[in-house]
Design a protein that fits this description.
This protein is an alpha+beta fold and about 90 residues long. It contains two helices and two strands; from the N terminus they run ααββ.
Length: about 90
């Protein structure tokens, strides 16, 4: 008996897009504006949420406005010093 030939079918749908996270503190809207429409705002938010779960990003704080919802500020976990603590001089660099 011959083994059936296995063919790799191409993945259907839109190809995935890797986001390069900014080096400084950022919001989801900051990332969305730099992508020039390559991803929707919802897709960027989902990628941020997955990166936070994986430990690639961390929440830094919240920007509060007079009106509307507060905006969460993120940064990459690569901004930590050698002991694992947040670098206190990160925004000064």
């Amino acid at each position: 008996m011959e083994n059936p030939t296995v063919t790799n079918k191409p993945k259907r749908g839109r190809p995935s897009y890797e986001v390069a996270w900014p080096a400084s503190n950022f919001t989801v809207n900051d990332v969305y504006q730099t992508l020039d429409g390559k991803l929707s705002a919802v897709s960027v938010q989902l990628k941020v949420n997955k990166a936070v779960e994986k430990g690639q990003l961390e929440r830094v704080g919240v920007k509060r406005k007079v009106m509307g919802r507060p905006t969460i500020v993120y940064r990459t976990t690569a901004t930590r010093d050698k002991t694992g603590n947040p670098d206190p001089h990160f925004n000064e660099k």
